[in-house]
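Incident log, support desk, overnight shift.

02:14 A customer reports that sequence design results differ from what the structure should imply. Their input is reproduced verbatim below. On-call engineer (initials T.W.) acknowledged and began investigating.
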């Protein structure tokens, strides 16, 4: 009997996040839909190159090999392609031996509204308009940034990196910081006073909760079989530092989240940690931490006050 999708960790990913669609998209922009469709039909047997989200997707699917009875991980392709154009994506999926069988093809229309039907815990797309719309109605979504993909086939571990405020937790602390006009002393005092009060979950807090659950399952596997090699490794990389650090720990406990590493950087450039950690994907709500990264698959979470200009509109810079 199939494992119910309601009990799975489901990732929805666009073809432009999973694969490198730059050449295809250039034809669409220059020549239109018909030329794009004909190009995809002509190139149907040529596999698409790996995209920014590919290393993450491939490795998270490997968890199904650790739990073959349940196969608890599901990846669904969410694409604005027509079904005909989408055939090349599925042939590429078969070429790379990715265990993906479900898809949503919407022929140019938005499709984020179908995320709940697939029980998706995360939607990854290269289109910022799509992810902003999804976030605006409460779905977990992120924009993969154009980054050179280096996928070491011998590296089977999946390293996940997360910012904290506006990603795992809500952005109420960031709101206080902005309202205090960047007064760090007032911010630290505020966070110290509320150290025992957990923040509410942020846009992908539920995703990390589920990842943490699988980490506990992997730890149980190690206890039964010491030769088992764990797949998952998680880290939080935050600009917070003491005395604002305690609220992070309080919040993680309240969300029943356990992570392997936490880095309290106090304003140090996150790239200094990321270049050593080498995560297969890193989530942050502020482009200032992402736009200069090299060879780090980065995802922008367009959530909260950090992504709004003074008029209240989403800031795409």
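02:41 Re-run completed on a clean worker. Output:
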């Amino acid at each position: 009997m199939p494992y119910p999708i309601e009990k799975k960790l489901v990732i929805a990913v666009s073809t432009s996040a999973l694969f490198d669609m730059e050449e295809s998209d250039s034809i669409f922009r220059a020549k239109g839909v018909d030329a794009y469709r004909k190009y995809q039909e002509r190139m149907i047997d040529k596999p698409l190159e790996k995209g920014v989200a590919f290393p993450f997707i491939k490795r998270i699917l490997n968890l199904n090999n650790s739990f073959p009875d349940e196969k608890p991980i599901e990846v669904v392709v969410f694409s604005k392609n027509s079904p005909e154009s989408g055939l090349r994506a599925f042939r590429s999926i078969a070429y790379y031996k990715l265990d993906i069988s479900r898809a949503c093809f919407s022929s140019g229309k938005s499709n984020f509204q179908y995320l709940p039907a697939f029980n998706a815990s995360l939607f990854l797309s290269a289109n910022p308009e799509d992810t902003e719309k999804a976030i605006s109605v409460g779905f977990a979504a992120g924009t993969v940034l154009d980054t050179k993909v280096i996928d070491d086939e011998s590296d089977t571990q999946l390293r996940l990196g997360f910012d904290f405020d506006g990603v795992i937790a809500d952005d109420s602390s960031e709101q206080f910081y902005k309202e205090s006009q960047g007064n760090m002393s007032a911010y630290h005092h505020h966070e110290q006073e509320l150290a025992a009060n957990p923040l509410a979950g942020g846009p992908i807090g539920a995703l990390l909760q589920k990842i943490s659950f699988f980490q506990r399952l992997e730890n149980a596997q190690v206890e039964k079989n010491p030769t088992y090699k764990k797949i998952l490794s998680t880290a939080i990389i935050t600009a917070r530092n003491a005395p604002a650090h305690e609220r992070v720990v309080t919040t993680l406990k309240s969300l029943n989240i356990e992570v392997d590493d936490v880095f309290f950087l106090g304003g140090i450039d996150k790239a200094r940690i990321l270049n050593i950690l080498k995560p297969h994907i890193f989530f942050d709500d502020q482009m200032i931490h992402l736009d200069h990264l090299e060879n780090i698959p980065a995802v922008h979470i367009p959530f909260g006050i950090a992504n709004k200009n003074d008029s209240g509109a989403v800031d795409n810079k």
